[in-house]
């Protein structure tokens, strides 16, 4: 297979009520020349993409134009159509138009419209629609107005009996609450049943020496920067992947994390040793937009990050199942053990509530060091 060094990414767009194919690529004379030969290409300022009308003919023409010249990234242009989009508005439109099995009931129009107006995250939109449709199809012969507290209790118990996870059961409850309380604006009168208890698990953390060993066992400069940043800035995997070159502020020794969980921006700290490695990495790899990019210049994949972390842990002979998120837990725990105020740690992690951050007080061991084990007193 030919080793292509160019890439375009296809996106679903809607402009003035018309379906369009968005074409995203880095500035390149060859790609720009090919795009100009497409039928009526237009520049869409809001999405910062060239777009053409979304027709079957245009789609196959586009594939033919770039065949053998550029890789085509279909991640946001899946077979599910707009359901695979990264725009919640387009996802909801796709759900409205999809063909359901005979006799199946779909989410009410006002349910979908409310989701659209509130601009919930794509994952929440998909989950709420799936969960609520499972509920209404459980009572396929009944109208929504006939479903009350007993029916909801029975449905939830049925999920539990089918061994649905606690998080899935809670998501179904949230979707049902959303319909009755938010969409229909009914009082909170259907829910005097207990939610599944949240599992009270402590976060797994690494020791400082284990983190040092992992970073030392990264023989690739890009991999070293990835592991170092996950730990030293307390980043989620998605936050690392979304970092852009301009988000690294060496003047203030800070990192800007944009629109993370809860659609919030926050600032985290940048370590001196990490900055030194990042400068060497930039000189060597020359990323164009995202701080970490794939071979064809696309955004780095989450699977690759997990593999990098896992391999570094294996090389360091760490027996734990190490994940990218464990490095974030370790960052918070080590800061707490060093005496950092819990409020600063909360801000660095982007937690809404201090209760979420307080879990690290249960795994920080600095307070235990002054306690003499009773067995040692017997010897």
Automatic annotation (TrEMBL):
A GO term, aspect molecular function: DNA binding
UniProt cross-references to SUPFAM superfamilies, sorted A to Z: DNA breaking-rejoining enzymes
Domain Tyr recombinase: 201-373
Listed InterPro entries: CB (IPR044068), DNA_brk_join_enz (IPR011010), Integrase-like_cat_sf (IPR013762), Integrase_catalytic (IPR002104), Integrase_recombinase_N (IPR010998), Integrase_SAM-like_N (IPR004107), Tyrosine_recombinase_XerCD (IPR050090)
Entry's Gene Ontology BP terms: DNA integration; DNA recombination
UniProt keyword annotations, A-Z: DNA integration, DNA recombination, DNA-binding
Core-binding (CB) domain mapped to chain residues: 102-184
Domain of life (superkingdom): Bacteria
Family as reported in the entry's similarity comment: Belongs to the 'phage' integrase family.
Protein name: Site-specific integrase
Organism listed in the record: Marivirga salinarum
């Amino acid at each position: 297979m030919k080793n292509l060094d160019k890439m375009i990414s296809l996106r679903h767009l809607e402009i003035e009520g018309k379906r369009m194919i968005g074409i995203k690529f880095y500035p390149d004379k060859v790609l720009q020349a090919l795009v100009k030969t497409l039928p009526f290409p237009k520049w869409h300022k809001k999405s910062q993409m060239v777009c053409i009308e979304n027709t079957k003919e245009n789609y196959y023409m586009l594939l033919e134009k770039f065949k053998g010249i550029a890789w085509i990234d279909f991640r946001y242009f899946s077979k599910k159509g707009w359901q695979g989009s990264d725009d919640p508005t387009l996802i909801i439109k796709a759900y409205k138009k999809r063909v359901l099995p005979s006799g199946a009931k779909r989410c009410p129009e006002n349910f979908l419209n409310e989701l659209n107006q509130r601009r919930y995250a794509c994952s929440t939109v998909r989950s709420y629609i799936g969960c609520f449709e499972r509920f209404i199809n459980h009572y396929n012969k009944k109208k929504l107005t006939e479903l009350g507290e007993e029916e909801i209790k029975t449905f939830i118990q049925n999920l539990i009996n089918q061994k649905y996870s606690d998080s899935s059961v809670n998501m179904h409850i949230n979707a049902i609450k959303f319909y009755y309380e938010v969409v229909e604006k009914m009082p909170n009168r259907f829910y005097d049943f207990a939610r599944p208890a949240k599992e009270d698990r402590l976060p797994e953390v690494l020791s400082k020496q284990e983190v040092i060993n992992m970073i030392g066992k990264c023989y690739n400069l890009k991999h070293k920067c990835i592991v170092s940043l996950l730990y030293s800035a307390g980043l989620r995997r998605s936050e690392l992947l979304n970092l852009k070159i301009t988000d690294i502020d060496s003047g203030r020794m800070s990192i800007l994390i944009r629109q993370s969980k809860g659609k919030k921006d926050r600032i985290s700290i940048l370590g001196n040793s990490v900055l030194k490695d990042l400068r060497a990495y930039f000189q060597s790899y020359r990323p164009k937009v995202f701080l970490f990019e794939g071979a064809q210049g696309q955004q780095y994949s989450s699977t690759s990050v997990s593999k990098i972390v896992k391999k570094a842990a294996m090389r360091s002979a760490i027996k734990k199942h190490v994940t990218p998120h464990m490095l974030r837990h370790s960052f918070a725990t080590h800061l707490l053990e060093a005496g950092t105020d819990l409020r600063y740690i909360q801000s660095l992690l982007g937690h809404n509530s201090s209760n979420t951050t307080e879990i690290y007080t249960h795994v920080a061991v600095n307070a235990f060091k002054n306690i003499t084990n009773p067995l040692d007193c017997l010897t």
